[in-house]
What we know:
Strands 2, 3, 6, 7, 8, 23, 24, 26 and 27 form a nine-stranded mixed sheet that branches. An eight-stranded parallel sheet has the order 41-40-39-32-29-28-43-42. Mean pLDDT is 89; it is low at 2-43 and 143-150. The chain contains 15 helices and 54 strands. The chain starts with 10 loop residues before the first helix and ends in a 14-residue tail after the last strand. The chain is of the alpha+beta class.
Amino acid sequence: MRRIRSRLPGRSSAVAVAVGAVLGLVTVPSAVPSPRTTPAAATADNTATVFYYTKTKNWERYNLHYAPDGGSWTAVPGVAMETACTDWVKKTVTLGTAEGLRAAFNNGSGTWDNNSGKDYSLGTGNITVKDGVIAHSDPCAGEEPDPTPGDGNRATVYYSTRTLGWTTANIHYQPAGGSWTTVPGVGMRAACAGWWKTDIDLGTADSMKAAFNNGNGVWDNNKGADYSLPAGITTVFDNTVTEDADDPCADEVPDTRAPTVPAGVTARADGVSVVLTWEPSTDDTGVTRYQVTRTGGTGGDVVTDVGSTVFSEANLEERTTYTYTVRAMDAAGNVSAASAAATATTGTKPPAPAAGKPLGTDPRKDPIYFLLTARFNDGDSSNNRGGSQHERSGNAAHNDPMFRGDFKGLVNKLDYIKGLGFSAVWITPVVLNRSDYDHHGYHGYDFYKVDPRLESAGASYQDLINAAHAKGMKIYQDVVYNHSSRWGAKGLFTPTVYGVRDSQWSWYYDEKQPGFEYDGLTVDPKSGKSYYNGDLWSTAEPSGNTCVNWGTPTGGRSPEGYTIYNCQWPGPTSGMFPQALYHNCWIGNWEGEDSRSCWLHEDLADFNTENAQVQNYLIGAYNKYIDMGVDGFRVDTAVHIPRTTWNRRFLPAIQERVTQQHGAEAARNFFVFGEVAAFVNDKWNRGSVNHSAQFYTWKERGEYSADDEKAALEMYDYEQQQGTGNQPTSTNAFLDGNTYHAPDRSRFSGMNVIDMRMHMNFGDASNAFHNGKDSDDSYHDATYNVVYVDSHDYGPNKSSERYTGGTDAWAENMSLMWTFRGIPTLFYGSEIEFQKGQKIDCGPSCPLATTGRAYYGDHVAGTVTSSDFSQVDSATGAVATTLQQPLVKHVQRLNQIRRAVPALQTGQYSTAGISGDMAFKRRYTAGGTDSFALVTVSGGATFTGVPNGTYRDAVTGDMRTVSDGTLSVGAPGKGNLRVYVLNGTGKIGTDGPYLK
Length: 996
């Protein structure tokens, strides 16, 4: 998960940080006024003037069919709309006390625009609906006669949206010495393709401050500085202001040519979903969007505007034929003729899949492929969602919504992962998330619900688990016990209101929708958003409020210029969260006791995990996924929960549930591995045993209070006093000479860990090797350590970039990981050095496509089948090219060799009697199996005191007979290795770019 390891400030400034982080999308002018009073209550004369854009519809008539909130719908087809100005019709309707309306538009002859079946949800005042986009302005306000000289200073402003993709534009301005207009400002009128215009009377002022917005919360305020515009004619294009400018539309020849008709329209049904695709149209100035018309079913004709050449619909009627046509539109509003029709007939909703059962085998046998589900492969575009940061992050410009990959995409590419040789897949958290940027899954909101943005008909989470098991592959689910989203945890505690919803905030924060529940996927009928937050804000102090000084201005402002009130945003010291369920403090010392009892980040509300109600909530939630048959849990932020709580509550609960549902053998091999983030290169994390990875692999060795909170403090103090020199040690990972011995598991806590020390040193394989084995006596059993080079958080040495050491270094790292103790793990795409050198995580400040969490599906497009691990039977398209890359060939063969030599999977190791840098011997003896291997990575080595006999190299097939206990091996070269196996079968696999 993403963390910021810095001391967070107290309430006032912490709230400022929180608001800035979330509202970075809406870069509102810094000079937005700060109303001191809340808006007046709704009266009985609320009205809405609805403007509807006509140029791309070409209907003969326009009707508004609507229902005031809480009221009845008009009779079909509704009320006729009247001409407002060029390309716009309008209708003013009376709403009484209602604060909005639901609406749809039609031509009176059966063709509808009902927002893809969801209807439009509109508020009060002036509202525009243009090509599916809702804004708040009067698009005809600028259509007044040209200014008359002598009436005062005038400013004519032209604003270009050619590089922004906006479908409307507003100007929010302040004449020098005057007041700002009311947000979002004044609607500008279309002047020519890509340009908007307005004329402003400045009175006696000779200049003004200004900012522009699209009416839906996306702003251009000159990077926070606002624009300074003089009287006269001014153009604003890509942050450049030109004074005394020529009319940018004066010499432009009107665009009257329509785009070409979309070709290759294809409709494909999958259950009750349809995906429509077509080839891009061409145009002399560029196609801006497409208009899809659907006929069929009981809902009548539906017209939807889309910005790409893919359109998808879900939850259609069963066994129904739908017909689709597509038109292309350009910036001037020219519309092509309709395409040839494409039809698709839906099937039936697939039945719920049966619960699965974990494979229940030793986890050390299963190399792990780690991926972010939402970023791996998109199998169903209908569940894609961009969230509130879609525009600001730049994801929209890349047509790359943060929730893009899904379980269907992963199921479709399990054969790719199997073909690489991996038999376990670690996926990011699956629970319903709620955050402004939550694609990674670590902002849990409803821990009992799988996030709908990951599921599809026939591709539920249960379907994924079952599909993986059918291929002999395990699913390890990332889980979070330490914290919820900043919105709390549904079913445990969710504050009903966080802060003031005044006129500054109301255009961005949604109104309450009784009965509507956030699920990340469903669009709120009021706001048109899937990231509905109307349950979080209020215009008046709520009943039962616990927040300290609710609604009082703090004296600070957000980076956007907003007045910040106490409790404007959730925080641990605000009083919003009950102390019984949530900790009420910020972490001050990352190696101190408060690291387990305070918030580690402003958007991660820290559970009081010592509280029985919290424990029961989490245990009950994760029992659900155990029952579904997952094979293990990767535990996020494990170090931020006391070891006593793990050992008393959570780990026994996991064992009990797995045993109850799936049996003792499955429980013994249910793999739990924790993230105990220790970003240091020493054996113990800055001398604090309580914050070191190996500490969590042990049972308690003291008797503490029956009260979990007191016990946590008692254990912490006791172990700190014991220090690093008086901690338990183990020989479970080590050979006794050349002899394997049964490990002593009597002191095992039930939690294994990620090998942070090796991870931190993988800038060089030799450093990783020597640092790793230096710590192995302090783990309960280091052969269970999960070992990786980089991840979704960091690269080696706490680098913020994906590993960029080069292909040879990657090969060497892999050769070490696949033969040394521990379980090799690869972060998705590393097999082709995907996004090497790119910043892993920059939040919403840059597009995901430029980061280490970029979308991978383009590299696995096509078909791939694999009948066995490391064996690809067939591949077509981009995935065939991916499978030919050198590190792919390398990891495939490493997996073949490791799978064929038990000593490399579950064996203990020793470096005694061995010369050479990365050289060791491993042995596993149990159940009739005796596997002994001598390994050297990159460099040469001499092994002495080893058993006599015949050794065969699994890489080259070379055979050596040892009669004096000594075997010498020459250096195979960087990234290469030698694996001499006593009584081995010889060469395994075929030579590749490194193993040869």
